Amino acid sequence: MEFESLPSFSSIPPPFPIIGPPFPPPPSAVFHPFHHNPSLFFMMDDQRSMSLLQFMADEGLVPSPEEEEKRKNVIHKLKQIISLWIKKVACQHRLPKHLVAVTSATILTYGSYGLGVHSSESDIDALCVAPFFATLAEDFFVVLNDILTRRTEVSEIHCVKSAKVPLMRFKFDGISIDLPFAQLKVLYVPENVDVLDPFFMRNIDDTSWKSLSGVRANKQILQLVPNIENFQAMLRCLKLWAKRRGVYGTLLGYLGGIHLTILAAYVCQRYPDATLNSLIMNFFRTFAFWPWPTPVMLHEGMFLRPVDVVETRFFMPILLPHSPHVCCHSNITKSTFYRIRAELLRGHNMTRDLSKPDFIWDYVFEAFPYLKRYPEFVKIYLSTPNQNELGDWVGWVKSRFRSLLLILEGMQGFCDPNPTEYVDKEKAEPNVVFYWGLLPGKSNSMDKVLVEGEFMKIIGNGFEGGSPGRMELSIVSASQLPKNAQTEEGEGASKGRKTCWKPIDNDEKGNMVCSQPQLLPHCLIGNVPPNGEAAECLSSSG
Ligand SMILES: Nc1ncnc2c1ncn2[C@@H]1O[C@H](COP(=O)(O)OP(=O)(O)OP(=O)(O)O)[C@@H](O)[C@H]1O
Ligand SMILES: [Mg+2]
Ligand SMILES: [Mg+2]
């Protein structure tokens, strides 16, 4: 396999063999192999869209009506709790009775749930929006925490206080909730308060502004995309694709939900009348050839702050759609950048030709074959004495993974941080194991003790949980991977996986905000015809 030179970024030595033909210049128009027969193009395009909808249904990308109902119920109950809480807080702040009577707070959902692209495993990102007198430190993190803790529906509650976006994280009726806080300078917060209205945004503090960012981003994106149903279906597919191909998860240096959301919205904007199939084709074509680090932005002429331009971590700058137009936080490194690009190119190669007689979507969404690709792996073993401490420990270490990746890249040139979390069932203690792919013949040059020591220093500082757990590094060959890691490869990999923690924001102290990744949808997908068509063959499949 030979590495093909990439357009732009030529200063970075290619660490990874890109599979497939050399990057051709991007086609100037929508790829269209049926110039002589447009009706055949539309027929094939429709058929592929149909079979993709069928694929989504088969994959269970659409939560059942019961699941939807459960989520709505949870949000309804949360709103009730917030309403009672704010009255209590108003009394504690000794507001006059007539003001207590009219004051209100609300819950605004955002993230994948707010966009209607969540799965049954998804968390709900829910912002608590409170009036001027409610404080973050006392009223939110103490009073509301106390109310929530007493509820029988609530479990596993903990506070992430010093992150850029401070929040409480808990399960409500078994559904994970990320609950940040924002304070507006008003007495009465309408149930569906418009966070783009300058009236509500005036004089708000910095933390509240950052907390509102997700809601504002969602709102803008939904205003900018021409066909929301197509956008939702496309985004669900892309999330599944990225997960299956091992390129989903901000903490591991890959794409997060927000990045894929903006990339999908960009393509939807440019192809307002495209079918689902055409949107996916255009997504791969657009971003396989994107001249990174040119930023992707949804508004023309967005202003990029100089600090973002020079920030080397922005290999793939993707700008938030609202002011100030800053880049989405990203942990992309040299290795993960090349992996993502290789996957985009693979996607393009697989989908570009509508006339391929044996095309099937299953190939596009096939799990990335780590065992075939890498002879050796860095094994990262994390454990704690008790199960209930494991989540915090693993979440903390993962929030520092970028540093480990950079150390390994420095020594090895390339490392592929597989986001999948495995469990070593032979060990009695609760544990989570990661296997990161290494290129052949490179591991000999790695001083394992040095890497472990360096990384221990990094994770030894700033852990907010109880007592830190254990972390061990080792090099293992592909054949030493546990059975479940080996068999999972072939078949639909990411099903039923342990979920990843991802940062909304990391602060300097390393406090992180985490959430569970999810796929899946919430509206569309009506009557889907049976999968009638043929398959695809892609010599370059991974
Ligand atoms: N790296 C980031 N930069 C800017 N905003 C972010 C970032 N990560 C998360 N957010 C904000 O927080 C919201 C929720 O993030 P979360 O990690 O839960 O992703 P998501 O889009 O909901 O996808 P998923 O389905 O994986 O949960 C995002 O929609 C976005 O508004
Ligand atoms: Mg989410
Ligand atoms: Mg979340």
TrEMBL record:
Its main location: nucleus. Its cofactor is Mg(2+); Mn(2+). SUPFAM superfamilies: Nucleotidyltransferase, PAP/Archaeal CCA-adding enzyme, C-terminal domain, PAP/OAS1 substrate-binding domain. Residues 45-225 form the Poly(A) polymerase nucleotidyltransferase domain. It is found in: Nucleus. GO terms for molecular function: ATP binding; metal ion binding; poly(A) RNA polymerase activity; RNA binding. It holds the Pfam family PAP_central. The keyword Kinase does not apply. The keyword Mitochondrion does not apply. Residues 230-366 form the Poly(A) polymerase central domain. Its EC number is 2.7.7.19. It is an enzyme of class 2 (transferase). Coiled coil: none annotated. InterPro entries: NT_sf, NuclTrfase_I-like_C, PolA_pol_cen_dom, PolA_pol_NTPase. GO terms for cellular component: nucleus. One of its GO terms (biological process) is RNA 3'-end processing. Belongs to the poly(A) polymerase family. This is polynucleotide adenylyltransferase.
